[in-house]
Design brief:
- This protein is mostly helical.
- It is built from seven helices and no strands.
- α1 runs antiparallel to α2 and α6 runs antiparallel to α7.
- The longest helix is centred in the C-terminal third of the chain and has 19 residues.
- The protein is globular, with a radius of gyration of 15 Å.
- The chain starts with a helix and ends with a helix.
Length: 128
Amino acid sequence: MLLAVVDRRDGRNQAAAELFAGLERQYPRNVLFAVETGEAWEAAGNHDAARAAFHNIVTRADRNAPGYAHAPRAQVWYDLGQIAVIYSDWAEALTDFQNAERAPGAPDKYRAAAEKAAADARQHLSGN
């Protein structure tokens, strides 16, 4: 784990993502490794891998997988919305940001950021 953290700090995000993914496989109940895997993939510019990692977290949380009861759903949905924005998929972004706003126990910072991002997505969808 320390090597992955150092890799992230040094900007070697792909290497960090691979290490975190290995830790996630080894410790499937540790949601932190799953989140870090997605974020490292996103930072590495591999948005498809990040999207898959984040969707996996939401799916596992929805299925009440062991260790995922306190998954940071608002953060994960917000990150998914940001990826959708990269692809200019405004409908998906809007849905993701709305899910972040409604996530149980969403921290205020994610709720506020998601609300603003959802408004931006609505503007893009309406053509304004």
